[in-house]
Structure formats: C-alpha cells, structure tokens
Amino acid sequence: MERKIALEIEEKPSQMNLKTCLVGVGGAGGNIVSYLYKNLTEQIKKHAHLEESLNIEYVAINTDQQDLTKIEINIPLCIGPNVCHGFGAGSEPEKGKEAAEDSKEEIINLLKDFDFIILFAGLGGGTGTGATPEICKYLLEIEDNRQRTILVVYIYPFSNMESARMLANECIKKTNEYLKNKGSMFLVSNEKFTGIKSVGNSFTDIFTKVNREIEKIIITLIEVLYLPGTINTDFSDMSNVLKKGTIANLSIGKINDVDDEPSEAIKKLKNNICFSEEIFNNAKSAIIYFFSKFFGRNHINEIMGDKTIINAQTVHTILGANEDFSEAKIFLLITSDFTEDLLNKWIVESDSYKESLKPRYLKEKNINEENTISQKEEKEESSIPKMVKNTLQHEPPKIMGILNVDENILDSDTPALARLNNQLRFPKK
Questions:
Q1: Is residue 288 part of a domain?
Q2: Which domain holds residue 35?
Q3: How many CA atoms lie within 13 A of 61 on its CB side?
Q4: How many domains does the chain have?
Q5: What gap in Å lies between CA 424 and CA 420, rounded to an integer?
Q6: Measuring CA to CA, which of 98, 110, 205, 373 is 20 to 30 A from 276?
Q7: pTM of full prediction above 0.70
Q8: Does residue 320 contact residue 232 with C-beta atoms inside 8 Å?
C-alpha cells in the first residue's frame, strides 16, 4: 500500500510565506514608512539571519498627492479624489474619513492579501486621524480565511497641541471599538522625545529620533516573526497576544557587556523610551523574547520567575528565544484592555517623562563635573616639578618655635639680620 504524506513540504518555511504590509496613513504615517522603506530594507539586506526576499510591502495612503510624490515608497495611494481632489484633508479628520469612504474599494483591494498589517499614523488632526480607524474597519470586514491581524502605531501629539489631542483621543476610542479581539494599538508619544538632551530642538530632530526608535522595534518584531527560534514564536502566537487587548506596548532592552547581569537588560527595557509602566502594570497578555546564547536557561528562569518583570501566573505569557544572535537583547510585547482611564494615565506618564530625566541628567552632569575636576587636579599635579612635589608631600612641623626679641638686641649697632642670626644659632658641642 502506497504511503501518503498529508502535507507536502514547502520550498520556503511557512513563516517566510507570511505576508506583512507596513502602511503609512497621512503625512506623518507616510514619512515613517518612507523612512522604514529606506533604512529597514538596507538593514534586512545586511542582516545575517534574514533573507532579502521577505514578504514585506511598503504602502503610503494620503489625501495629498504632492506629499505622496516627495516620499520614497513603492506603492502610493491617493484617496478621496472626489472629496479632497488631491489637495489634502485640510486638517479636518472628517474629510479624512470621507476620503477613506470614497476610496474604500481601492483600499481593500490593495491590502486584502496581507496577513499582518501595521498601520502608522500621526494624530495631528488630518488624514491620519480621520482615515486610519476607517481603514481598520474595512480590513476587518473582509470575509476570507486569512488570520488577518492589525497593529496600529499612533504617534501622539505634543502637549501644547490641545485641540489635536482631543481629536486624537476620539480617534483612539473609535479604533478601539473596531479592533476589539482583532488587533491592537501601540501609542508613541512625541512629547517624550522633547526631554532627551541628545535630541535637537527642531521638529525634524524629534521626528527623526521617533522614526529611529520605531525602526529598532519593527526590525526586532520582524526577527521574532520571520526567524526560527530555539524556542519558536510564530505568527499565531503574535496574533493571539495582539488580539487579547486593544492597547499594546513594545520595548527592547539590550546588554552591551557580556559581564552584565540579565537584570541589566530588564532595567534597560524598562528605561526604553517606548516602554509604558501604566500599560505594563495592566498587562493581560505578553510575549517575552530572548536573543543571544548569553541568556541561558538559568538566566531565563530567573527573569521569568521575577514577578516584578512579568507575573506569569496572572499574565498569559509566551516565551521565545533565539540563541543564534551575538548581541544580547530582550523584546517585550504586552497588551491590555483599553479604557479611557488607562489612556489618561498613559498621557500623564508620557508628558512627565522628561521630568524623570532631570535627576538622571543631573546625576550624569555631577559625575562628569567630578571627573573633570579630578582630571584637572591630576593635570595640575603632574605639572609640578618632582623635587617640589616631594617637598610639598612632607607635612609641616607640628610645633612652631617662638623667638623672644629683647630690647638689647634691638638697640645694638649690629645689623638686625646679623643680630637675629646670632640669637638663632645653636651653640656648638
């Protein structure tokens, strides 16, 4: 009897067949995906563990035709030709929504064949704010057999943009309604980046830093998804975690010195600018992924057993590890149920972040000043001649002699200095 194989082995492993799409919505979203298109693709080419032929597509969706022409992207889509006529949404979210409705069929046809869709949008109050929730809605209405999962990365406005924040909060609430049990939102605060001393004062400096942090997280996310691990984490794991809560947080902690304790990576993970203590404390589900042979079984057990890191008894936790990496890092993805109270706490936490940097900055400043003073003293000391330095090192006499000068000495015709010398001279024995 001929033996039959139930499943034929594919030419490529199933993870490599995963179709991922990075979609920028509006001006800010388009700029982020354009940045990723230029930088992420170069990183993937240089990455020793990733193939160049990954199924990752880059798309920009906007109402502004001119903005689409100035960014580097391989698939641009101008939406709402009958609403915005290619001139943008005019900072009106309602127009962005109408533009999405006007181009619903084109949006669905463009994105329907992807398994994992990551949407990037700024919440300044225009196309991104108005169209992104609607795009989520259209994608989740598609009836097919795909295990389609959506992650929305929203860039939250600066603290002085109060009207934009009001619109942003409404957009986040609406997205939450559409994504329940189907995807999640990752909020990144522009305000957090204003407190970093290494970042310049211009908007370009801040936005570039935001893009770089997002790039680090997305490349690590791709590593988790596309690479076979020692303890494997696949797309189904990622999808399940993202669908268990509509607000997500992603962060990375690296160890640069192999002599560092594993707890150092956790400290750096919690100090990561994208990390949120508020969302962490309300976690329902998590993926914690270890890169590098440095994280052995004992190290991982130690970290996983620390309830201040992840309480595996109350949080549904998926563990992953890849021992083929030379650099040591930890990737953490956590999700929680969205509430307005949690959003407000996240906003307060993000706005006060730069205040928490001050003690750290002042401490570093004091250490630097102490080091500078120490170096200056060493330099000054080294400039003193050796003979003089040796003389200075001797302690002065502890008892000082007192010379009594009588009137006879003062009235003498002998020169004063000679008279004093005679009185100071000890008798010879």
A1: no
A2: 14-248+339-354
A3: 32
A4: 1
A5: 6
A6: 205
A7: yes
A8: yes
